[in-house]
Amino acid sequence: MTFIPAGSTARSPWALEITPESAGWTYSGLRTLNLSGETVSFTTGSEEMLVLPLSGSCMVEADGVRLALEGRRSVFASVTDFAYLPINAEVRIGGEGRFALPSAVATRRFPVRYGPAEKVPVEIRGAGQASRQVNNFCAPDAFECDKLVSVEVLTPEGNWSSYPPHKHDTASEHEAVLEEIYYFEGGPGYQRVYGGHEVMAEVSSGDVVLVPRGYHGPSMAPPGYDLYYLNVLAGPAQERSMAFCDDPRHAWIRGTWEQQQVDPRLPFGRNR
């Protein structure tokens, strides 16, 4: 199933659970956790993970290390701090709020680490109605780990992101093979996938779209509704990469951005 409605994969303690096995692929996974003051314990096993506050704050304990995550009010309010969890770690998370745990099957073991919010690179991509904000907290150049890549994308109402449509399903000098998860907050919005898997879905908070192959985009935020998505990507290459190939029918769109202004509503959390 490529479109996964909110709540359809809930299995205690997870509000959302996507594993490589349930997705039908090899590397990428995602869990979400809702806490109201209790503490949850689990083992990472073969997956490296992040603890990313969507709202609220928490304490993370792993490998004898305690990390306090300040978190944020909501995904639209600010960038957040986060924690990195290595493979084969015993973990305890306690706090109040909602938390995403993007993951990837890995082989190298890195130490438990804290990712401060002030060190997350924030990129404004595109222009005009294709303007969007990308929080590159676990992009290849921003944070070191084995296989996992994860970023946040925030799209103001009326704008399109993941545009032009692109793919990353063929290994080449200019493209990496990646399994990708889109997890949504806000909305309703719309997500398109084609050329391998066909999806045209209305998406809202808690919904997920899986992209095992093919072109994906645009992600559309209709007037009145800002849209957030968390991307989780991983693949077989030794070196982490987000290299992609635009749909050649629409690649020309990038050239039009030079003549357009960036949407002044960006970045989120500063002008709103």
TrEMBL record:
Catalytic class of the enzyme: isomerase
Enzyme Commission identifier(s): 5.3.1.30
Protein origin, superkingdom: Bacteria
Keyword set includes Isomerase: yes
Keyword annotations: Isomerase
Gene Ontology MF terms in the entry: 5-deoxy-D-glucuronate isomerase activity
Keyword Isomerase: yes
PANTHER family: 5-DEOXY-GLUCURONATE ISOMERASE
Protein name: 5-deoxy-glucuronate isomerase
Organism of derivation: Nonomuraea mangrovi
